[in-house]
UniProtKB/TrEMBL annotation:
Signal peptide: none annotated. The chain crosses the membrane at residues 111-130. Residues 76-95 are annotated as: Disordered. GO terms for biological process: phosphorelay signal transduction system; regulation of DNA-templated transcription. It comes from the Bacteria. One of its GO terms (molecular function) is DNA binding. Residues 1-43 bind DNA. Residues 1-43 form the OmpR/PhoB-type domain. It holds the Pfam family Trans_reg_C. This is Transmembrane regulatory protein.
């Protein structure tokens, strides 16, 4: 049998393998990406035998697996870019492998996360306490029923709105005779 392997199916297979092994692309423990070359297995591999009741069946399974592996190996060796990227020398595999323990990775991530959260909480507090909002300057443009009407100094003229503002203030004063009078109106 022959298996045709293209880049997308190889990428998908490696992605699936990494998901199953819970292997990170940032700090891989099993499969390392070699840029513009391919992938490299960086973990140690041991063959495990499974006990079966029929020794002959086990031998047949092993023979079938070996023949399939030989076919796949020949297929892979036919592709030069993949052949260069896969190292079968055991000394190079163990020399390149520097897997971090899960505790070390978790410890580094935990420290980094706490530092980011601390900065995220501290930064708004610092900005809030060190900056003072600019106070707006107001100018009085009119007075209706004893209530001054103010407008920000940088605001455009409101002369066309004066009748509406006067009507609003007069109605408020009429309808709220028992309430406290407004101190000022900002328009």
């Amino acid at each position: 049998r022959c298996f045709e392997v293209d880049d997308s199916s190889l990428t998908q297979a490696i992605s699936t393998l990494r998901k199953m092994l819970k292997d990170s692309t940032k700090s891989p423990e099993f499969v390392k990406t070699v840029p513009k070359r391919g992938y490299q297995l960086i973990c140690s591999v041991e063959r495990m035998s499974t006990p079966t009741s029929e020794p002959n069946a086990e031998l047949e399974d092993v023979d079938a697996e070996e023949s399939t592996l030989e076919n796949v190996t020949e297929e892979i060796q036919a592709q030069p870019q993949v052949e260069d990227s896969v190292s079968t020398d055991p000394s190079s595999v163990s020399g390149n492998a520097t897997p971090l323990s899960a505790a070390k990775v978790s410890s580094k991530n935990n420290w980094f996360t706490r530092a980011i959260l601390f900065v995220a909480v501290l930064l708004p507090i610092i900005v809030f306490t060190l900056t003072k909002p600019a106070e707006s300057q107001f100018r009085q443009i009119a007075e209706f029923s004893g209530v001054p009407v103010m407008t920000p100094a940088n605001h455009p003229q409101l002369m066309q709105w004066m009748p509406s503002i006067e009507q609003c203030v007069a109605r408020y004063v009429e309808n709220h005779t028992n309430d406290v009078m407004p101190v000022k109106v900002i328009a």
